[in-house]
Amino acid sequence: MRRLLLALPFALLPLAVAQAHDDHDHDHDHDHAHGTLAAHEHGVASLNAVLDDSTLELQLVSPAMNLVGFEHAASSDADKAKVAAARQQLEQPLKLFALPAAAGCKEDSQELESPLFGDAPEADDDDGDAHEHGHADVHAHYQLTCANPGKLTQVDLAPLFKAFPATQKINVQAIGPNGQKGLETTPGKAVVAF
């Protein structure tokens, strides 16, 4: 299943490139590669959702700014408390992702990674100092098993937007029984149908 989730960005690459080009903002003055799947943009997160038989995998990647309000190493007690509170919320995926109760989904496993959680800096950071560049992401990966996967027709992201109000948009790539799709969710349009 993990191979399927990891293949998802490549399966939807043409869609992501087209969307990135269409949504591209030309009013900035720094260079970046066109069509990158993991662009770091405050207020924007990404979610890969794969439903395969009875297994639902969710992979959320978000700038730390969206979740805790900063991206530097937490040194003050207030910052450490914000990081701990965000981590506690992220450890409860069934409260962040509203799933139909009839689907009977239960969490099997989760992985949370971020320099803010004391993890090593991200692999794509050349010199190992994600904090000095001002960019730190949070990666959350969840695997759930659903007793009645036929009843899992949608995932509602409204609780996630409510828990982390600085998140204004989540770009979703989904694979389910009805095929694959990419869509943009917002607090007012937060439902992802499978």
What would you call the structural class? alpha+beta
- The total count of strands amounts to 8
Radius of gyration: 17 Å
Q: Shape from CA axes?
A: globular
Determine the number of helices (DSSP H or I, runs of at least 4 residues): 6
Strand content: 25-35%
Low-confidence stretches: 6-37, 122-132
Termini, distance in Å? Answer: 17 Å
In total, how many domains does the architecture comprise? 1
Q: Helical content, roughly? A: 25-40%
Main sheet summary: 6 strands, mixed
- Mean pLDDT across every amino acid position: 81
Main sheet: strand order:
3-4-2-1-6-7
Topology as H/E string? Answer: HHEEHHHEEEHEEE
Assembly type:
single chain
Question: Which labels suit this protein?
Answer:
two-stranded antiparallel sheet, Zinc-binding protein, 30% strand, six-stranded mixed sheet, ZrgA-like, 6 helices, 8 strands, 194 residues, signal, alpha+beta
Describe the structure.
By secondary structure, the chain is an alpha+beta fold. It has one domain (2-20, 47-117, 136-193). Helix content is 26%, strand content 30%. The protein contains 6 helices and 8 strands, in the order ααββαααβββαβββ. The protein has helices spanning 2-11, 13-23, 64-68, 77-90, 93-96, 158-163; strands spanning 44-52, 55-63, 105-113, 137-146, 154-156, 169-176, 179-185, 191-193. The strands form 2 sheets. A 6-stranded mixed beta sheet has the order 3-4-2-1-6-7. Strands 5-8 form a two-stranded antiparallel sheet. Strand 6 (169-176) and strand 7 (179-185) form a beta hairpin. The longest helix is centred in the middle third of the chain and has 14 residues, at 77-90. It is globular and about 45 Å long. Keywords: Signal. Residues 108-134 are annotated as: Disordered. This is Zinc-binding protein. Pfam families: ZrgA. Residues 1-20 form the signal peptide.
